């Protein structure tokens, strides 16, 4: 059985199967709603339910009116009227499942590996800068990793993998990968991309390997010679955690963007910015009216940045986030 999903304040409506999530149904018919983890943890896909009833795998029974409902986990049990933060018409996602070949594994930091994968000969990966893929593990479970290369480098993908203690991929499979090994992946996923229609200055914020999609976005902007001011703030505990700092400095030195590294637990010799990365942004800009913010990294940072920046004048529609959630955090 299926139900009608209507979007409040618009003429958008689509059908959703009772076993299908509202997010999946919207995507299937060509509507893009912000999301990140697809596991009910990061809150990126939060929406209001104005009317109707539904069942959520993480929030239980939902009856409208209700706020902060996670659309990635919501299956309708009646017709629904929803109020997402943002919804846009897009071509339905054309995802591919591919067997990619390991080309190179390097380790620029003690807890970060860079994994370079090659696509099959003659095959290209079509994605937008900032999107991610899913790696399928032997037991059928999946892990999400942002593609750090720009879309024009479409015969391969680069992944930045942070080593998570006990992680089945980062501490398990990854250790045994050598050149020539195969990994099954599906791509692309995600809505964390630079908004093409806007010319507002963009503030890009990353923590840890949240730098990966930011790298893709910056290199894509450079390739396409976008005439748009870019400000990059990269937060980490210590200097060695900024594992591609030289690349960000190269962008800055060439005038491509303004780069500010921020350390929360620096060594004594550090003379740069200290503290939380979103607070450094606020110190530098004050009012964020007239800017767009793209924040990627741990969920505590993206949540704090959203709350702080919207209070500082940032329009709700000008905040975009991709929260990195460990699989063991998911319900």
CATH architecture of the largest domain: 3-Layer(aba) Sandwich
**Which strand order spans the largest sheet, edge to edge or round the barrel?**
14-13-16-11-12-15
The CATH class label of the largest domain is Alpha Beta
CATH topology of the largest domain: Rossmann fold
Poorly predicted ranges? none
Number of strands: 22
Provide structural commentary:
By secondary structure, the chain is of the alpha/beta class. It folds into 3 domains: 2-89, Ubiquitin-like (UB roll) (Roll); 96-189, Elongation Factor Tu (Ef-tu), domain 3 (Beta Barrel), CATH 2.40.30.10; 202-329, 3-Layer(aba) Sandwich (Rossmann fold). It contains 5 helices and 22 strands.
Which key features would you list for this structure?
331 residues, alpha/beta, Ubiquitin-like (UB roll), Elongation Factor Tu (Ef-tu), domain 3, Rossmann fold, six-stranded antiparallel beta sheet, six-stranded parallel beta sheet, 5 helices, 36% strand
Quick structural summary:
By secondary structure, the chain is an alpha/beta fold. It has helices at residues 22-28, 211-223, 245-253, 277-285, 299-311, and strands at residues 2-7, 13-17, 31-32, 46-51, 53-56, 60-63, 66-70, 74-76, 80-84, 88-89, 96-109, 112-118, 132-136, 142-146, 156-162, 182-189, 202-207, 230-236, 258-263, 273-274, 292-297, 319-323.
């Amino acid at each position: 059985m299926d139900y009608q999903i209507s979007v409040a304040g618009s003429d958008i409506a689509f059908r959703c199967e009772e076993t299908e999530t509202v997010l999946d149904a919207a995507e299937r018919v060509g509507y893009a709603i912000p999301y990140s983890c697809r596991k009910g943890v990061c809150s990126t896909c939060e929406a209001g339910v104005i009317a109707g009833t539904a069942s959520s795998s993480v929030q239980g029974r939902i009856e409208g009116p209700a706020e902060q409902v996670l659309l990635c986990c919501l299956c309708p049990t009646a017709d629904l009227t929803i109020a997402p933060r943002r919804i846009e018409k897009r071509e339905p996602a054309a995802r591919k499942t591919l067997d990619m070949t390991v080309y190179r594994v390097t380790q620029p930091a003690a807890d970060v590996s860079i994994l370079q994968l090659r696509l099959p000969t003659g095959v290209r990966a079509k994605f937008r800068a900032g999107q991610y893929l899913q790696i399928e593990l032997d037991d059928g479970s999946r892990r999400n990793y942002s593609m750090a290369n720009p879309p024009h480098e479409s015969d391969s993908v680069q992944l930045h993998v942070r080593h998570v203690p006990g992680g089945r991929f980062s501490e398990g499979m990854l250790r045994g990968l050598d050149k020539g090994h195969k990994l099954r992946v599906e791509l692309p996923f995600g809505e964390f991309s630079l908004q093409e229609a806007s010319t507002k200055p963009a503030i890009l914020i990353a923590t840890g390997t949240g730098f990966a999609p930011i790298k893709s976005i910056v290199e894509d902007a450079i390739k396409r010679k976008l005439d748009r001011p870019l400000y990059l703030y990269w937060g980490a505990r210590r200097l060695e955690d900024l594992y591609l700092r030289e690349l960000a400095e190269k962008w800055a030195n060439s005038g491509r963007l303004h780069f500010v590294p921020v350390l929360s637990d620096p060594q004594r010799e550090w003379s740069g910015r200290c503290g939380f990365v979103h607070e450094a942004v606020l110190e530098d800009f004050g009012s964020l009216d007239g800017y767009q913010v793209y924040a990627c990294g741990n969920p505590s940072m993206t949540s704090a940045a959203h709350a702080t920046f919207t209070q500082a004048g940032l329009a709700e529609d000008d905040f975009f986030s991709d929260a990195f959630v460990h699989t063991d955090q998911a319900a």
